[in-house]
Amino acid sequence: MKVNKISLIVVFLFSCALVNVRAQETEKTFVKENMEFAARQCKLMLNTPSQGKNGKAMMPHSMRKDGTASKGSIYLWTAGFFPGTLWYLSDYNNDKALQDSALAYTRKMEPVKTFTDNHDIGFMMYCSYGNANRFAPQAFYNDILVESARSLCTRYSPVTGTIKSWNSWRSWNDGTVFKYPVIIDNMMNLELLFAASRISGDDFFKKVAISHAEKTMKNQMRKDGSFYHITMYDPETGKFIKGETSQGYSDNSAWSRGQGWAVYGFTVAYRETKDPRFLATAQKAADYYINHPNLPSDKVAWWDFNAFQPGFTPGARSNAGKITTNYRDASAAALVASALFELSGYTKGKKAQVYLETAKQILHSLGSPNYRAKEGENANYILMHSTGAIPQNSEIDVPLVYADYYFVEALHRYNKMLNNEPLF
């Protein structure tokens, strides 16, 4: 009788293992199909002009009304995402031609290393040269990244303890101009600073990043785990003045991509410092996204969690008050998925599984015909249905290059997890 029981247990465990192996293989097939499709779309994109007037380099950004790809200068905040996407795809697909293209597009970005007009150099240079240094390291990439970090630090004020995002911000409400705005997107630039400290051995970059994260945690996060898009500081005293929005529905609403920047940014801050405060903040931001009653069942968020709800009123000058249709934001979902794969590895217990399963569900939603474009369509971008800036009446329900980047990054991370490989 004991032998029979043992045999049954062995059979049961073997069956469970077999089911798990089959599930793993199914997921690997899902990743492979999406990464191969993404590579084909990007190769089609590579056939479109990469230079504008006077031979200046241009990078994919979104889609025009006529269905063709819109492109922007290397000094546009999104410029680093296309070369970064090429790096991920070339690594996964072991594609030398894509790697050559990734290198060519990355080199176009080098002049940006001295850019100081806003905080976006982290997006521009770490998505391009940071990934280049990860997948095909060269000594001079280190110099470029450190110089880029120095440029970013010119916008740091020890008085406010933060990196100034824009040179000023004019409120949607009454037109008041604030001289020291800091936006939640700025958390994404800290990865460049942490990398520069590792490369150079200079702790200054890391100290700036930590200070910025601490002030963002203190002044930008609300009690419920949502975030103001913009926080205003007095540049003379460093005093926090108020929170507003530029791209969200209202000042007190939760702009979904901003929530994603917070999840991702504080996850990186924890990775680089092991400070439990940053982990708790990343988790609180993630829990807000995952548990929000307005999150659709496919986990692809509306562009703002509170759009059209009572108690949330757009500023008088904002286009958000003029729209009547709600829109999804695939870019917000993609970056949250990528962040959750990493965050799940720093989290214990049931919550870790929730993060992992949510990330997987988002990927499967984005990889479905509801969001993934047909090959050769969508101006050769991978994903449809992103939302850029409704208050500015700009980029509404269109493809966006950064949605593609974070989708591909999330797939790349998921593949590593399926193969029991470290993410970093």
| Radius of gyration from CA coordinates | 22 Å
In the predicted model, the low-confidence regions spanning at least 5 consecutive residues are none
**Order of adjacent strands in the largest pleated sheet:** 7-8-9
> N- to C-terminal separation?
50 Å
SS-based class? mainly alpha
Average pLDDT across residues?
A: 95
SSE succession? HEEHHHHEEEEEHHEEHHHHEEH
Instruction: Please state roughly what percent of the residues sit in beta strands, choosing from under 5%, 5-15%, 15-25%, 25-35%, 35-45% or over 45%.
Output: 5-15%
Q: What labels describe this entry?
A:
424 residues, mainly alpha, three-stranded antiparallel β-sheet, two-stranded antiparallel ribbon, 12 helices, 11 strands, 51% helix, 9% strand, globular
